[in-house]
Amino acid sequence: MTDNVRVSVVIPVHDAEAGESDGEKTVRSALASDLQELEVLVTDNGSTDRSGAILANVCDSRVVRVRLHPGRGASRPRNVGIARSRAPYVAFLDPGDLIKPDKLSAATNALDRHPEADFAFADFEYLDPGGSVVRPSAIADFPRFRTLTSVRVEGDWYLIPQAQLARGLMYESFIETSGVVLRKQLLTEMGPFDESTIYAGELDLWFRLAHSCSALYWNHVGHSCQHKSEEDLAYEAHARTDDRITVLQREKRRWNDRAARRQLDRRIAQDLAAMGYEQRLHRRRLRSIAMFAYAFATYPDARWLRAMLDSIRSS
């Protein structure tokens, strides 16, 4: 491996045996980058299956596997990868996602030319299990993102000023982890992923970044990811809700602006209400009532009041 490493790609894995081929494809997609001066750090979060097999067929000195003791969530293995990285830029890539060949070179070159931004992210597409594109532009699903004031700096690259970035993230989480390339020095200064928020470490980091720097956005597909079923989305929403509320409450404390705090209250209430519906689905009536009441107290909305009354009337 050359010492002139431009970017370190961090891929966390855990018990990925069922998706071995997808994991191998993820690693190979990074190695196929037109930017050859890279390293791929595969951090194995204490897998108990044959996850190591994802590297068995990948013979490339640029791949480094780091074996960890078992832990929860992706933040810790990502942080270990960041700490082990040797490049000035760090890129994140999740198992099953496929990075486009031109993404890393485009992002690092743009950041080189625009020091006013500290990280870059891009649009992405969704694939079906057969590999066909089912949604060619995921960013199109974020209406608030399209209203942000940005400056076209070159080609399809746009500078999103820090204040605009922070305002936009209050409304919707439009940054996908596998789409991010950032300056490692930035993480050294402000800290990496928060390992205490198992399921919302990414959102916490995007909020903190948005309060400290501007970003470059590439209006171009930088990676592909698998389209998730309604069942998968429902499970993830339930698993992440508690941590996401914690992160949103933390973000609320960073704002003095009344409108901003109310918007964050609105998102917190939506998550509380989602927990209320989940509790009702499992016939936990009292817990459901409590969640809807908490949601209404956080952000008064007639929907939560009606839902609470429905839970009271349910048998």
What number of structural domains do the residues give? 2
* Text of the CATH class of the largest domain: Alpha Beta
Radius of gyration: 20 Å
CATH domain fold name of the largest domain: Spore Coat Polysaccharide Biosynthesis Protein SpsA, Chain A
Globally, the shape reads: globular
Characterize the largest beta sheet: strand count, sense, and whether it forms a barrel.
11 strands, mixed
- Estimate the mean pLDDT confidence: 90
**Termini distance?**
65 Å
Count of alpha and pi helical runs: 11
- For the secondary structure, the number of strands is 11
Q: Point out poorly predicted stretches.
A: 230-235
User: Which percent band covers the strand fraction?
Assistant: 15-25%
What is the level-2 CATH architecture name of the largest domain? Alpha-Beta Complex
Derived from helix and strand composition plus strand pairing, the structural class reads: alpha/beta
Strand-and-helix sequence, N→C?
EHEEHEEHEEHEEHEHHEHHHH
Q: Helical proportion?
A: 40-55%
List the helices and strands and how they pair.
Blueprint: E1 7-13, H1 20-31, E2 38-45, E3 63-68, H2 75-84, E4 89-92, E5 98-99, H3 103-113, E6 117-127, E7 133-135, H4 143-146, E8 151-154, E9 157-160, H5 162-171, E10 181-183, H6 184-190, H7 201-210, E11 214-226, H8 230-252, H9 258-281, H10 285-298, H11 302-313
Helix pairs in contact: 5-7, 7-8, 8-9, 9-10, 9-11, 10-11
